[in-house]
Amino acid sequence: MKKVGILGGTFNPPHVGHLIAANEALHGLDLDEVRFMPNSLPPHKKLAGHVEDEHRLRMTELAIEGNDCFRVETVEIQRAGVSYTIDTMRELIKREPETSFYFIIGADMIEYLPKWRDIDELSRLVTFVGVKRPGYSTETPYPVLLIDTPEIHLSSTVLREKAASNKTLHYLMPETVIRYIKENGLYGA
Fold first, then answer.
1. Residue ranges of the chain with pLDDT lower than 70?
2. Quick check: pTM over 0.85?
3. Does residue 68 lie in a domain region?
4. Residue 54 included in any domain
5. Residue 103, domain extent
6. Is the peptide bond preceding residue 38 cis, with omega within 30 degrees of 0?
7. pLDDT the model gives residue 136
8. Whole-number pLDDT of residue 65
9. How many Å apart are CA 29 and CA 101, to the nearest integer?
């Protein structure tokens, strides 16, 4: 059975924290691939600094270039509207019944699991993989497989603020993404 990790998020913009978490899950769990899945409208986040789907999708593609085990999953962007993980996973499982899915989440989302739509069913459909983040607890009543990763205190919010202030983004995200942000004037860059 194929083992696929799913790393969902706004990727607004994608950064090294996302790449490290995906890479550690890939190798730590012996996954066949990890798919980065930009969502259209997250149900749990306000859309401050939100850029269009096509920009976030392109930045995600640029961020994962060169890693043959990383792919982009576009199911939520194609569906548009609010992205509930349960709907997405039902669709992916229907499309790929011979695949085991590992849904990779940061500690901020581990804390939030009790509020996810149809979480009991979802926790039966996927294996949740938790990535520790400084300042967040990994305590939850739901089964989460924790993996060891370097803990980096980095967020897309901080990167958007840096871009808007014309501060350096070097080493915080791939250079291809930084160039794309500047060329397209995203986040006030």
1. 44-49
2. yes
3. yes
4. yes
5. 2-152
6. no
7. 80
8. 97
9. 12
Number of residues in the chain: 189
Identify whether 160 is part of a domain: no
CB burial of residue 54 (10 Å; 0-12, 13-18, 19+): exposed
Spatial neighbors of 7 by CB under 8 A, at least 6 apart, are 18, 21, 22, 25, 34, 35, 36, 37, 104
81 burial type by CB count under 10 A (0-12 exposed, 13-18 middle, 19+ buried): exposed
* Chain centroid offset of residue 132 CA: 14
| pLDDT tens figures, 83-93 | 899 999 999 99
What the block records as the tokens of 82 is 């609010």
User: Any idea what the CATH number is for the domain that residue 42 is in?
Assistant: 3.40.50.620
Q: What is the model's pLDDT at position 46?
A: 60
State the Cα angle at 65 between 59 and 70, rounded to 5°.
100
Q: Is residue 100 part of a domain?
A: yes
